[in-house]
Every structure is written in C-alpha cells, then in structure tokens.
UniProtKB/TrEMBL annotation:
One Pfam family matching this protein: DUF2252
Ranges of compositional bias, category Basic and acidic residues: 403-414
Entry superkingdom: Bacteria
InterPro entries with a match to the protein in the record: DUF2252
Location of region: Disordered: 395-414
Protein name (Swiss-Prot/TrEMBL): Uncharacterized conserved protein, DUF2252 family
C-alpha cells in the first residue's frame, strides 16, 4: 500500500464506514474532487515547506476552493453570496488560505480542460484583486443588489426558487402527509431507534431557536450526504411542520463537527472552545457578512452538531457548468478574491487575528504574491500525481473496508 493511501485511511478512520466508501468513490471522479476531499493532505504538506512566505495570522475557513463559495439565505432573510464552508475554520497564517484557493484554480481548470495559461491568468487576477481589497482595508459583500456578472445571474436564478419548490424537490406525499424522499444517494432512511431519539431531541432545539416559531413539530428525519470532504460525518435533515398551518414546512439540517483538519499543523495559539460547534459558529459569524438562518449548536449522543436551515437558495457555483468564457470567469474570480479578503478584514483584530492595519500593510507588499503563485502551480502538479496514485490504489481495492470494520447502525437496512 502506498504512503498516500495510508495517510488517507488514517485521516478517515473513525468516520462512518460506508459513507467513507462513498467519499472515496466521489474522490475518484477527477483530480478536483480528490482535492476537495483531501484538505488534510494539503496542509500537512504545506506545514513542511521551509521557504513559504510568512504572513499575519487571520481567521480562515481552512478549505477555501472554487466551489466553497455559494448563496444562502441569511438570518435577515436576504440572499447573499459568500464563503460558505467552515468545517475546517481556524486561526492560521493568511497565506495558507490564499494558497489553497490559488491551487484550486489550477486543479479545477485542468480538470475542466481549460488551458494552463488561462489558469495562471485567473490565479494572477485573484491575487491582484485580493491584495487590492486587503490594502484598502474595507470589507465588501454581495447580495442581489450588488452582484454582477455570472454571480448576479446565479443569485437571480436561485432566488426565484421558493420554499415550496424545495419541499417538492426533497419530499414526497405518503399517506396524505409529507415525507422526505429517500433516494439512497443523498438521502437515506434512519434506523428506527435512532430516529425516535432524534425526534425527541429536536423539540428542545425548536423551543430555543430564536428565528423559528415554537409551533413546529418534527414530521420526518433522514440521513443526508452532501459535499466531499465532510462525507463520513453524521448529518441529518428534519422536516418540520407548523402545528396550525399544515402547509408551512421547514427543512433544517444537523451536521456533526470535529476538530479542524488544520489543527495538527497550526502553531498559532487558538481560543479555548467549549465545543467544535462553537468554534465553527464563532468563526462563521465573524467572517461572513451575514450568517445563515437558524445557525446554532446542539449536543447529541456525545457529539456536537451545527444546526441551520436548509433553503432553496442554498447553492454553489458549479464550475463545470460555466462555459469557457473569459468575461464570466474573470468576473467570478474577482468576486471570490474580494470576498476572501473581505472575510479576513471583517474578522480582523478578534481573538488573536491581526488588526486591519497589519492586513493593509501586508496587502501592499509584493514579494509574497509571486511565491504563492509559484507554490500553487507546483502543488497542483503534486495533486495530479496524488490523484493518479489514489486512483490506482482505489481501483486495486486498497480502500475496501476490512472485515473487522463494523457496519453503520444509523441507516435502516432495506
């Protein structure tokens, strides 16, 4: 077995066995999907680099790549486009976040068969806009009123979706009542005993939820699979129905949290968190302009979870759906660079992160930019090599579950 496979198996040990098998299958699709599922490899390798640029400590989402930007409905019910995945969020050197984003450009463009010259052009553009916004010291945001280009079209389209359409897409009518549609791909049945425990837990959360009426009852529960890197964690979705107005339905999700994949490699002292859910929510609230609706933490069976509303506007830009159009790509790269710098400015001077003056000064320096660009280009080749090694090992059965690995107990057997 290759050392790469040993690293992957070690990191994913302890997660839900059959869901990890699904994760490996997803990672085998292409190098970009592999990159999305191996954040830990990126930072383990980065931590060993001797000549990497020194940069100020900032709050980072940790796993920032081209598909971890997306739209969602905030707690003020408006739609925003922003960074939207904070599972790995942590206080770390500023350049760590930028280097992963730049690398994602090279890996994604290569997977999409876009010329290397275009990838380098996009990466340079990202650096240019990012440094300009950082030097300006002012945080910006994107909502339907301020969006332009492909992001504007994207937000316009997803904004038209209604909660009813979300319900119709995710649910089915059974015995004159709504149930979550089980497709055994993204939605799975939950074991009867576990389902009963979950249904008993949620009323307490509903009672304490700030932005939700107390007059809701749990109608159904399902196990949910989404993304790549987080596949293997416990993740449940709940269909809630208003007690009086039966047509009022809400879908919320509950996602298990664990320590950031970056934590073994970051030497910067971190705040003491009560739980990993508290860490995630704290950083999310500081880095985003507006946080998603119903964002909160909950404990269940010894694990901590993050709760938030599932919405018709929760979506991500899929780069494979964007044609090779210079104007479209340029505009969305600019937006992502602006949002990345804005998130660090917005959270500046909080719990150990650098103050805005320090970020402004760093943004005006030029030496680190070329170094990051070179590192990202070189590491994207490493990702390609790792992916090919993984694919070979995967096809040769190196990632098949061992006989002593126990099957999961929370999904109902058909």
């Amino acid at each position: 077995m290759s050392k790469l496979s040993e690293r992957l198996l070690k990191f994913n040990k302890g997660l839900l066995t059959d869901m990890v098998q699904l994760k490996y299958k997803l990672m085998s699709e292409n190098a970009f999907r592999f990159f999305r599922g191996t954040c830990h490899l990126f930072y383990e390798d980065l931590s060993k680099v001797q000549e990497f640029p020194v940069s100020p400590p900032t709050w980072i989402c940790g796993d920032l790549h081209l598909e971890n930007f997306g739209s969602f409905k905030g707690n003020n019910r408006m739609v925003y486009f922003d960074l939207n995945d904070f599972d790995e969020a942590i206080l770390a050197p500023l350049c760590w976040e930028v280097s992963r984003t730049l690398t994602s450009i090279f890996v994604a463009f290569n997977a999409l068969k876009i010329k290397p010259a275009e990838a380098k052009k996009a990466a340079k553009l990202f650096l240019k806009i990012y440094s300009e916004v950082l030097t300006g010291g002012k945080a910006y945001y994107i909502d339907p009123r301020t969006a332009t280009g492909i992001v504007k079209s994207f937000m316009k389209a997803v904004k038209k979706r209604t909660e009813d359409e979300l319900i119709q897409h995710l649910c089915e009518t059974k015995d004159s009542s709504f149930k979550i549609a089980i497709d055994n791909k993204t939605h799975f049945k939950v074991d009867k005993a576990l389902k009963a425990e979950l249904e008993q837990k949620i009323p307490t959360w509903i009672k304490n939820a700030r932005d939700l009426s107390k007059n809701y009852t749990v109608k159904d529960v399902a196990f949910r699979v989404a993304g790549t890197g987080s596949v293997g964690l416990k993740r449940y979705m709940f269909l809630l129905q208003h007690n009086k107005d039966k047509k009022k339905l809400v879908i919320v999700e509950m996602k298990q949290t664990r320590s950031s994949a970056l934590s073994p490699y970051v030497s910067i002292k971190q705040p003491v968190w009560k739980s990993e859910a508290e860490r995630l929510i704290f950083i999310k609230q500081k880095m985003q302009n507006i946080s998603p609706a119903l964002l909160s933490a909950i404990n269940f069976q010894g694990d901590t979870y993050v709760f938030q509303e599932m919405q018709p506007t929760a979506d991500k830009i899929k780069f494979e759906l964007i044609e090779e159009n210079d104007n479209k790509l340029e505009r969305v790269i600019k937006d992502m660079a602006m949002l990345t710098a804005s998130s660090q400015i917005r959270s500046g001077g909080i719990q150990g992160s650098s103050i805005i003056d320090e970020l402004v000064a760093f943004g005006g320096q030029k030496d680190w930019q070329e170094a990051l660009l070179t590192y990202a280009m070189n590491y994207s080749s490493q990702v390609a090599d790792d992916y090919n090694q993984f694919l070979s090992d995967y096809n040769n059965g190196k990632f098949s579950p061992s006989d002593n690995e126990k099957p999961r107990k929370d999904i109902k057997s058909e």
